[in-house]
Amino acid sequence: MDLTANSKDSIELRVASRNTQNNGDTLFSVSDFSGGNYHSSRDDTTLRRLGKRPLLNRSFGFMSSLGLSCSVLLSWEGILVTSVPTFLSGGSGGVVWAFLIGWVGITSVYASVAELASVAPTAGGQYHWVAMMAPDSCANFLSYLTAWMTTLAWQAIAITTSYSVATIIQGIVVLAEPSYVAIPWHTVLIMWAAAVFSVLVNSTTGRVLAKFEGLVLILHLTGFFGVLVPLVYFAPHNTPADVFTTFTNNGGWSTQGLAFLVGVPTVASTMTGADCAVHMSEEVRSANVVVPQALLYTIFINGALGFAMVIALLFCISDVPAAVAAADTMFYPFLQIFESAVKSTPGACIMAGVVLVLAVASCISTYASASRMMWSFARDKGLPFDKHLVKLNQNTLPVYAIMSTMGTTVLVSLIVLGSSVVLSALLSLLLAAIYSSYLLACGLLLYHRVTGGFHPYVPGIDEDPIHSGRLYWGPWKLPEPFGTINNAFACVYTAFILFWSFWPQDNHPSPADLNWSVVVYGSVLVFSIVWYVVRARHYFKGPIKEV
Predict the structure, then answer these.
(1) pLDDT digits (tens, 9 = 90+) for 4-27
(2) Dist CA 441 CA 431 (whole Å)
(3) Other CB atoms closer than 10 Å to residue 266's CB: what's the count?
(4) What is the pLDDT of residue 81?
């Protein structure tokens, strides 16, 4: 098999020919149906149709996939961090309505992503789908850009979660012992500890990780009430008018509407990352149905929890200046809000401890998804040292990709020793990069949708080679015309968030407050294009057809 072929046949949208059976690469075997592995066998057949060998154990079901997505999203936990900056710039009303816009918008996006995940449930996710749907003339190029953006975005998420764990720990220590000073090298060491712990859990077995994610789902739901109930019960409450109708323009923008719009991406970012389930698709049973369901249930559950926490937090903020000042000493204003609400430092530490435990769980889940994305890109010869990154251990886990994710975190974390502002500037790539991948995939899906590029779902298509070369819907699909309307809205929303994600919170920001994402994103984009033209076009031919 020529892996360097330039034709679209190298893209993984071909149905595996029955001729592969003559080469010993059979679609089914007796062992596939033993021990209740029928669904796994069908999943493996789907993967072979897409050109990939099934190498990973399918240990994840619906609940564990849902737990994985919920733990990565951390909606109600994340809103504790992101709501205060938006509150300061746009007011409490800005936070509420920004969250609602973000919830509706990201639900639309993930509904389209869920449809694509049902069509082609592979670890590559967005770049695989782009390769499937893009014109032959630019499929490899667009797939390469999407792969790099998605890979870097997930590495940035892994670094961000490690940094969050470290700073939450230091913030709790400052809350309990105000004489403690958060020293940068302490932050770095804690980040390393979080990374090592995540690697250890991810390097056990897929079954252990799946059970862990199921436990995280329970903690995510019970922890929400463990924080919400004391916060609402003990804290004095603001009026509904203060919460829902108060808008401010502290950023010095020319209009109130502009002040609101620049704050939307910050709040909306708390609902980003549910596509982690997509990158775990090759370890999920009945992936073309379970992954779409997990995506949508994650958005509904986390959206409801996040919105409830937004309302509770805004009703319970009593001392805004003290909360703002806490950001300089404790990293996060919500720690001061907890203490002010319950009038007890130990009580506030316990509430913050719940958030910390879930942040650690999120770090573990993020490492799982980031490593699978890296492993998939390396499998298609898109990364340096791909021959090593694709190796699996005896438990069929991509341990080298997991270790490489840790190595990236360790190296980038050293920036904290110089300036955390620089680290924040680098990590600002996250939102723009991942939304770029959503926009390209959803845009191509919309094009094929309105031009009739997708054929109706055919049960058993994975076993029938006569459909080779065509795009077929998966078993999970939105009914028409709602599907097309939703798809179009998803494209508009991703473009909207992508545009406003480059804007700073203040009209005249200092270098420390400047939004560097446009610089970082632009640099990565230009470098990727130049590298593709100079080198990558000679060896990256899109998702490689292995079978």
Answers:
(1) 433 333 333 333 333 333 333 333
(2) 16
(3) 23
(4) 82
Helices (H), 206-344: 206-234, 240-244, 256-261, 264-268, 276-279, 287-316, 320-330, 333-342
Identify whether the C-beta of residue 9 lies closer than 8 Å to the C-beta of residue 545.
yes
Give dist(CA 326, CA 323) in Å, integer. Answer: 5
Query: In a 3-state reduction of DSSP, which class is residue 494?
Result: helix
Residue whose C-alpha is closest to residue 324's, from 267, 250, 401:
250
pLDDT digits (tens, 9 = 90+) for 436-494: 999 999 999 999 999 988 888 877 665 554 445 678 898 999 998 999 999 999 999 99
Instruction: Determine the Cα–Cα distance for residues 464 and 389; give it in Å rounded to an integer.
Output: 33
How far is 406 from 429, CA to CA, in rounded Å?
A: 19
CA angle 478, 483, 488 (to 5 degrees): 145
CA-wise closest residue to 273 among 363, 146, 406, 162: 363
Q: Indicate the residue type of 310.
A: V
Measure the CA–CA gap between 446 and 298, rounded to whole angstroms. Answer: 23
Residue with tokens 């699996």: 392
| Euclidean distance between CA atoms 145 and 440, whole angstroms | 10
Q: Are 511 and 419 in contact (CB under 8 A)?
A: no
Structure-token pair, residue 166: 């470290």
Q: How far is CA 79 from CA 174, 312, 509, 530, in A?
A: 21, 11, 23, 38
Task: Tell me the HSE value of 165 on the side-chain side, using a 13 A CA sphere.
Answer: 27
Q: What's 30's DSSP letter?
A: G
Alpha carbon 321 to its chain's center: 33
